[in-house]
Amino acid sequence: MRSKSIAVIVVAAGKGERMGTDGNAVPKQYRALAGIPVLVRTIKAFLAHPQVTQVLPVINSDHADRYEALGLSDRRLLPPVHGGASRQASVLEGLKALAPSRPDLVLIQDAARPFVSADLIGDVIEILQSYDGALPGLPLTDTVKRSLDGKEVVATEDRRQLSAAQTPQGFRFGQILSAHMRAGSVRRDFTDDAEIAEWAGLRVAMVTGDPNNIKLTHPEDFVRGEQILMGGRSMETRIGTGYDVHSFEPGDAVWLGGVRIPHSARLNGHSDADVALHALTDALLGAIGEGDIGVHFPPSDMQWKGAASTIFLRHAADLIARQGGRIVNCDVTIVAEAPRIATHAPAMCAVIAETLGISASRVAVKATTNEKLGFIGREEGIVAMASASVEVPRID
């Protein structure tokens, strides 16, 4: 008897609007969690499962470049499709895209649940031998009150009959496709796919959920997520510093903090000579004892000729992630008589934050002059100094 084909739809079309307004413009599914984007963690969790035969991401049409930048590649990973105006509509787009291959089973997973375990995936698949649909559920431990206006309590629910739903939710493909098609013409406010299956009269069962299978919805969820990844390990804080200087040469703009600033000269260097990002890269590398930028990107190597310094900065962040660490904050000071830098500082903070996968509130860029003294005062070049704090697992 042939093995069942099992497809996975990873729903990643949301804008992450509930993540707050802390200056971080990165949608939550593309935001780094311990150095790795959330969506990458979620997709790889399913690609690592031996029973999964194909994975289909459903993304926001505005995020096509972000998705491509993830660099994901696997023979079972299908090209992403664009979602709709709601989660329900996005899932339907995914189901329709899978229809030509007609898998036996389909699992539907929220992109913002990156901690789904292989055991939980297996449990959902297993119970589909006996039911039309399945989902993980966690029994509620708190007493649950009902209120019609958010203030006055009108009833106390029996929590023994209640569970909190998680994903992945699994179904027999033909049945859930039919249910979604019918539901879309009747209602567009179903909260999850299991509710659609119940509405369509399908038999849906629950398996025991996982407390660590959290959904990243609010900023504090990322803190908890990092704690889950640390697995109870104690952390220690490291501090690194960086310093760099570049002279001017004929040109029409300088690169500083990943931002191109028009000027009467440019900075001389093998790469784009971004003195601010070079100093910050050295600070991050120093915090984890990984030498300096020249060790990792020698100026004698022609492949780095004219390279964007965000490449160097991202490499430092990747090294920190591989050590199980996280970047706490970065502070950069640029010393120059010209060009004027202060108005460009917010854009620099945004570039640095996105490159490192952290909130812009964790990045500071400041500018000052040298009061007309020395080579800086003579407008012969620019100096940048940086410091960075990093948390890494404690090594006793």
TrEMBL record:
<dbReference type="InterPro" id="IPR026596">
    <property type="entry name" value="IspD/F"/>
</dbReference>
<dbReference type="InterPro" id="IPR003526">
    <property type="entry name" value="MECDP_synthase"/>
</dbReference>
<feature type="binding site">
    <location>
        <position position="375"/>
    </location>
    <ligand>
        <name>4-CDP-2-C-methyl-D-erythritol 2-phosphate</name>
    </ligand>
</feature>
<feature type="site" description="Positions MEP for the nucleophilic attack">
    <location>
        <position position="159"/>
    </location>
</feature>
<comment type="similarity">
    <text>Belongs to the IspF family.</text>
</comment>
<feature type="binding site">
    <location>
        <begin position="270"/>
        <end position="271"/>
    </location>
    <ligand>
        <name>4-CDP-2-C-methyl-D-erythritol 2-phosphate</name>
    </ligand>
</feature>
<feature type="domain" description="2-C-methyl-D-erythritol 2,4-cyclodiphosphate synthase">
    <location>
        <begin position="238"/>
        <end position="390"/>
    </location>
</feature>
<keyword id="KW-0414">Isoprene biosynthesis</keyword>
<feature type="site" description="Transition state stabilizer">
    <location>
        <position position="270"/>
    </location>
</feature>
<feature type="site" description="Positions MEP for the nucleophilic attack">
    <location>
        <position position="215"/>
    </location>
</feature>
<feature type="binding site">
    <location>
        <begin position="244"/>
        <end position="246"/>
    </location>
    <ligand>
        <name>4-CDP-2-C-methyl-D-erythritol 2-phosphate</name>
    </ligand>
</feature>
<feature type="site" description="Transition state stabilizer">
    <location>
        <position position="28"/>
    </location>
</feature>
<feature type="binding site">
    <location>
        <position position="246"/>
    </location>
    <ligand>
        <name>a divalent metal cation</name>
    </ligand>
</feature>
<feature type="region of interest" description="2-C-methyl-D-erythritol 4-phosphate cytidylyltransferase">
    <location>
        <begin position="1"/>
        <end position="237"/>
    </location>
</feature>
<dbReference type="InterPro" id="IPR036571">
    <property type="entry name" value="MECDP_synthase_sf"/>
</dbReference>
<feature type="binding site">
    <location>
        <position position="378"/>
    </location>
    <ligand>
        <name>4-CDP-2-C-methyl-D-erythritol 2-phosphate</name>
    </ligand>
</feature>
<comment type="pathway">
    <text>Isoprenoid biosynthesis; isopentenyl diphosphate biosynthesis via DXP pathway; isopentenyl diphosphate from 1-deoxy-D-xylulose 5-phosphate: step 4/6.</text>
</comment>
<keyword id="KW-0456">Lyase</keyword>
<dbReference type="GO" id="GO:0019288">
    <property type="term" value="P:isopentenyl diphosphate biosynthetic process, methylerythritol 4-phosphate pathway"/>
</dbReference>
<feature type="site" description="Transition state stabilizer">
    <location>
        <position position="18"/>
    </location>
</feature>
<dbReference type="Pfam" id="PF02542">
    <property type="entry name" value="YgbB"/>
</dbReference>
<dbReference type="InterPro" id="IPR020555">
    <property type="entry name" value="MECDP_synthase_CS"/>
</dbReference>
<feature type="binding site">
    <location>
        <position position="278"/>
    </location>
    <ligand>
        <name>a divalent metal cation</name>
    </ligand>
</feature>
<dbReference type="Pfam" id="PF01128">
    <property type="entry name" value="IspD"/>
</dbReference>
<keyword id="KW-0511">Multifunctional enzyme</keyword>
<keyword id="KW-0548">Nucleotidyltransferase</keyword>
<dbReference type="InterPro" id="IPR029044">
    <property type="entry name" value="Nucleotide-diphossugar_trans"/>
</dbReference>
<comment type="function">
    <text>Bifunctional enzyme that catalyzes the formation of 4-diphosphocytidyl-2-C-methyl-D-erythritol from CTP and 2-C-methyl-D-erythritol 4-phosphate (MEP) (IspD), and catalyzes the conversion of 4-diphosphocytidyl-2-C-methyl-D-erythritol 2-phosphate (CDP-ME2P) to 2-C-methyl-D-erythritol 2,4-cyclodiphosphate (ME-CPP) with a corresponding release of cytidine 5-monophosphate (CMP) (IspF).</text>
</comment>
<keyword id="KW-0808">Transferase</keyword>
<feature type="site" description="Transition state stabilizer">
    <location>
        <position position="369"/>
    </location>
</feature>
<feature type="region of interest" description="2-C-methyl-D-erythritol 2,4-cyclodiphosphate synthase">
    <location>
        <begin position="238"/>
        <end position="396"/>
    </location>
</feature>
<comment type="pathway">
    <text>Isoprenoid biosynthesis; isopentenyl diphosphate biosynthesis via DXP pathway; isopentenyl diphosphate from 1-deoxy-D-xylulose 5-phosphate: step 2/6.</text>
</comment>
<feature type="binding site">
    <location>
        <begin position="368"/>
        <end position="371"/>
    </location>
    <ligand>
        <name>4-CDP-2-C-methyl-D-erythritol 2-phosphate</name>
    </ligand>
</feature>
<dbReference type="GO" id="GO:0016114">
    <property type="term" value="P:terpenoid biosynthetic process"/>
</dbReference>
<keyword id="KW-0479">Metal-binding</keyword>
<dbReference type="GO" id="GO:0008685">
    <property type="term" value="F:2-C-methyl-D-erythritol 2,4-cyclodiphosphate synthase activity"/>
</dbReference>
<feature type="binding site">
    <location>
        <begin position="292"/>
        <end position="294"/>
    </location>
    <ligand>
        <name>4-CDP-2-C-methyl-D-erythritol 2-phosphate</name>
    </ligand>
</feature>
<comment type="similarity">
    <text>In the N-terminal section; belongs to the IspD/TarI cytidylyltransferase family. IspD subfamily.</text>
</comment>
<feature type="binding site">
    <location>
        <position position="244"/>
    </location>
    <ligand>
        <name>a divalent metal cation</name>
    </ligand>
</feature>
<protein>
    <recommendedName>
        <fullName>Bifunctional enzyme IspD/IspF</fullName>
        <ecNumber>2.7.7.60</ecNumber>
        <ecNumber>4.6.1.12</ecNumber>
    </recommendedName>
</protein>
<dbReference type="InterPro" id="IPR034683">
    <property type="entry name" value="IspD/TarI"/>
</dbReference>
<dbReference type="GO" id="GO:0050518">
    <property type="term" value="F:2-C-methyl-D-erythritol 4-phosphate cytidylyltransferase activity"/>
</dbReference>
